[in-house]
Structure formats: structure tokens, C-alpha cells
Specification:
The complex is a heterodimer of chains A (224) and B (142). Helix content of chain A is 57%, strand content 17%. In chain A, helix 1 packs across helix 5 and helix 5 crosses helix 7. Chain A has two domains: 71 residues; 131 residues, Histidine kinase-like ATPase, C-terminal domain (Heat Shock Protein 90, 2-Layer Sandwich). Chain A is α+β, with helices and mostly antiparallel strands. Chain A is elongated, with a radius of gyration of 22 Å. Chain B has 142 residues and is an alpha/beta fold. Chain B is 54% helix and 18% strand. Chain B is built from five helices and five strands, in the order E-H-E-H-E-H-E-H-E-H. Chain B has a five-stranded parallel β-sheet with strand order 2-1-3-4-5. The model of chain B has no long low-confidence stretch (mean pLDDT 88). The chains are: A alpha+beta (224), B alpha/beta (142). At the A-B interface, helix 1 and helix 2 of A face helix 1 of B.
Chain lengths: 224, 142
């Protein structure tokens, strides 16, 4: 029990750290562009003092660039804020596809850095589950990370959903996988604690080029 | 003489503004948005310094640093980063990074680092030339 708690909290902390670091890195990039834009305006005004006139089109262009970066940073902050509020409630009702999309959005920089292209195939009907949203996001990220690692050269992944009424599922499939990595999926103490907490089991897919997260009985909720 | 700099960052807007500001300060700037492309450029051209983002899609910062140092050991590399941990900084310095600068960077500080990097590179190249001459003289009994 102590092991499970410790594993769960370690996994959660690691996940929180990784997502926060990625989001703040992106915010820093926005700030760097805003900072250089301010510097460029300063340069231009100094030049205009010696050799007028100052091009208004140029100033307008820089102002638009700043606005773009402020909007971009605002979107990142909103995502980070939503993510942080994931720990507010022990359980809540969540749309599975929306949760996957949110994790992909939140981790988009990390995914791009690994050079992976991910395609999501929507389920035929909405899948609602009652779960701890923060840990579910954590588990989805772990699955994406694992699938990226297991993928052979061509890093393309398809995420799809199983709509079985009792056991909804999320499937991660690659073009080809490294078999040795598929033999010990989610075997760490942290992973096991996370799966136990969420009541999730793992199953390899039929083609052995991916795996599914199966959300067991207590999770499904009938959509409104 | 002006400093010749290769600026590498996946943020295109950052590249545009930085290169404009650096050019206005008398530097000759080439830009590219990935470490892979930077390596191709380095095979054809020579630079006094590279200013490179440490976290970019594709080849990771440490990997890129190793590859550049392998190709051109005398090259001075200044890393730009969102947040540098002590561990990463030490590791990068061991591989051969000349300096670190956190984003958003102060352009005056960066210009200073580029000037220092150029001086350092000239010293290394001079030393290499000296050794080559010594070697030639020894081999030809001069």
C-alpha cells in the first residue's frame, strides 16, 4: 500500500514537472520574441533620430508580432491553468477523446521534439468515464511516451478508441515496433501504481504493433 | 572585422528579429531552424561562433553539440536555453560548449560573448597553424 502511494505520487510529480517545464519553455520562447521586438523598436527609434523617417509599416509589423506572441503565450498559460486544476477533485466525469486531445495539445512541444506524427481517430460515440482526471492524463502521457519509444524509425502513431460499454479503451498503434520494448510494457512500480489507482489494464493489439489502455468496469458513465 | 555567426533556433520569428538586430551591430549572420540543417551549413562554411537553442525538435541539444564539435572542434558554441540546470550546463561545457545564455537573452551580453568567442577561436586556429608549421619544419629537417 505504501509502495502504491509512493509510486503514484512520484509518477504524478514527474508528470507535473515534465508538462510544466515544457509549457514554461514555450512561454520563455514567446517572451524572448517579445523582448527582441522591444529591442528592435529601440534600435529603430535610435536610427530614426539620426536618419528619419521611421517606417510606420515597420512599427506596425513589430506591434503585430508582439500581439501574436502575447496570444500564443496566453494559450499556453490557459492550458497550464486547466492542467493544474486537474488535481482539484478526486474524481470527475470526463470525455475520453477530449482528454486525449488535451494531453496531445499540452505536450505538443514534447511530441514535436521526438519527431512523432500522431493521428487521432474519433470514436463512433462519446465515451464518458468517471475518473481522476490528473492521473488519467498522466497515464495517457505515459502511453504516448511508451509508444514513441517503442516505434521503429517511421514515427507515426494512430490513437483510436474502443467503445465497449463496460470496458472503454484507448489504443496506441505504430507502423512498426521494437519487440523487446513491447515485452515489458508499464512494468515499473510507478506505472503499476498508476494503473491500479485508475483501474486500468494493458493489452497488446492484434497486430502486435501497439497496445490499449482498458478502463475497467467502475469507470464508464452513460453519456447524457 | 565583423563576427560571422550562425544562429540556430526553431522559432522563426526569433531568428528574424535576432538576425536583424545582430546585423545592425555589424555582425554577419546566417540563420537556420534545426541542428541538422546547421550541420549541413557547417560542412560548407566557416563561422566565428554558433548561437544555438538547446531544445529543438529533431536532434537534441547535447547530440547536436557533439556532432558540431566532431565536425569542427575549433568552433565556439554559445547555447541559448529556456532554463539551464546546473547538471545540463556542466555536461554541455564538458562536451565543448563555450557559454550559456538564458532566454530572453540580453543582446549586449550575447554580442560580448560572440566577440570573446571569436577571439578564442582565433587563438585556437593560430595555435593549430603553429603546430602545423612546427610539424612541417620537423619533417623536412628545418
Amino acid at each position: 500500500m505504501v509502495d502504491d502511494k509512493e509510486g503514484l505520487s512520484k509518477s504524478g510529480m514527474r508528470f507535473f514537472g515534465k508538462m510544466s517545464a515544457s509549457a514554461t519553455h514555450e512561454i520563455k520562447n514567446c517572451l524572448a520574441i517579445i523582448n527582441e521586438s522591444a529591442g528592435l523598436l529601440e534600435d529603430l527609434s535610435m536610427m530614426a533620430e539620426k536618419k528619419p523617417p521611421l517606417s510606420l509599416a515597420r512599427v506596425n509589423d513589430i506591434s503585430q508580432r508582439v500581439t501574436r506572441q502575447v496570444n500564443r503565450a496566453d494559450i499556453v498559460v490557459r492550458k497550464l491553468n486547466r492542467f493544474s486544476h486537474g488535481v482539484d477533485r478526486k474524481t470527475q466525469i470526463a470525455n475520453l477523446e477530449e482528454t486525449v486531445s488535451f494531453v496531445l495539445d499540452l505536450a505538443s512541444r514534447l511530441i514535436a521534439m521526438q519527431g512523432v506524427v500522431i493521428k487521432v481517430t474519433s470514436p463512433l460515440s462519446r465515451i464518458m468515464v468517471e475518473t481522476n482526471i490528473f492521473y488519467l492524463e498522466n497515464m495517457i502521457w505515459k502511453a504516448i511516451e511508451t509508444a514513441c519509444l517503442a516505434a521503429k524509425e517511421k514515427k507515426q502513431m494512430v490513437i483510436s478508441f474502443g467503445t465497449d460499454a463496460d470496458t472503454p479503451s484507448i489504443w496506441f498503434s505504430m507502423d512498426a515496433v521494437q519487440n523487446d520494448l513491447m515485452d515489458d510494457l508499464f512494468g515499473s512500480k510507478e506505472d503499476r501504481a498508476l494503473m491500479k489507482h485508475l483501474d486500468i489494464s494493458i493489452k497488446k493489439n492484434k497486430d502486435n504493433n501497439g497496445f490499449g489502455l482498458l478502463l475497467l468496469k467502475r469507470n464508464p458513465v452513460t453519456p447524457n | 572585422m565583423s563576427e560571422k555567426v550562425l544562429l540556430v533556433d526553431d522559432e522563426k520569428e526569433f531568428l528574424e528579429i535576432m538576425s536583424e538586430r545582430m546585423t545592425a551591430r555589424g555582425m554577419v549572420v546566417t540563420t537556420t531552424d534545426s541542428a541538422d540543417k546547421a550541420l549541413s551549413i557547417l560542412k560548407k562554411e566557416s563561422f566565428d561562433a554558433i548561437v544555438m537553442d538547446f531544445q529543438m525538435p529533431g536532434m537534441d541539444g547535447m547530440e547536436a553539440l557533439k556532432a558540431i564539435k566532431n565536425l569542427k572542434p575549433e568552433l565556439q558554441i554559445i547555447l541559448l536555453t529556456g532554463y539551464a540546470t546546473v547538471e545540463k550546463t556542466v555536461e554541455a561545457m564538458k562536451i565543448g560548449a563555450t557559454d550559456f545564455l538564458e532566454k530572453p537573452a540580453d543582446l549586449e551580453a550575447l554580442s560580448e560573448k560572440i566577440k570573446n568567442a571569436k577571439t578564442e577561436k582565433m587563438l585556437i586556429v593560430e595555435k593549430q597553424m603553429e603546430e602545423k608549421i612546427k610539424d612541417i619544419l620537423q619533417r623536412h629537417g628545418g
